[in-house]
Design a protein that fits this description.
InterPro entries: DUF1731, NAD(P)-bd_dom_sf. The chain is mainly alpha-helical. The protein has seven helices and six strands; from the N terminus they run E-H-E-E-E-H-E-H-E-H-H-H-H. Helix 1 packs across helix 3 and helix 3 packs across helix 7. The radius of gyration is 17 Å and the shape is globular.
Length: 166
């Protein structure tokens, strides 16, 4: 499941950051070498020490809370769907576009970027990983679309407008 846009803590935090002028992109860059990120699976890629200098263009897969509920119901009622099904909106964004859309919606003229050297200590305090915002998450709902599911919120702009309004 992609990041859910709705009334949860992730959306509330992003909206709050945008409102106070800290809603710029999250940008990868230099940080002390470490081996925390080894990848997933039997043959993970990367050494875990390389940075990618994303400049905020890392992919951001998302889904509106209304589509989560509706898609789960669709999957349960559809016998042809079995096994893993990706829950994400069909139109992927990137981090820079996400943050710009949020800023426009809340009326913030400026959004200062957050660089890895800022995120690493902050995320340590919050007990989470900066990779959650620095790495691309590129998931498409191919099987869901092939089964005939129609998204209520396929586009990021209207979805952001709806969740901020709520």
């Amino acid at each position: 499941m992609a990041i859910v846009l709705g009334d949860g803590p992730a959306t509330a935090t992003l909206v709050r950051l945008a409102r106070i002028g800290l809603g710029g992109p999250q940008v990868d860059g230099w940080w002390f070498p470490h081996r925390r990120y080894h990848g997933i699976g039997a043959n993970p890629t990367g050494s875990g020490t390389r940075t990618h200098h994303s400049r905020g263009r890392q992919k951001f897969s998302w889904i509106h809370i209304d589509d989560v509920v509706k898609a789960v119901k669709f999957i349960v009622e559809n016998d042809a769907l079995d096994g893993p099904v990706n829950l994400s909106a069909p139109r992927i964004s990137d981090n820079r576009t996400l943050m710009a859309t949020l800023r426009r919606r809340v009326g913030a003229a400026v959004g200062l970027p957050a660089f890895r050297w800022m995120l690493e200590p902050a995320m340590l305090i919050l007990r989470t990983e900066p990779e959650l915002v620095l790495k691309s998450r590129w998931v498409t709902p191919e099987r869901l679309l092939q089964a005939g599911y129609t998204f209520t919120w396929p586009d990021l702009g209207p979805a952001i407008n709806d969740v901020v309004k709520r």
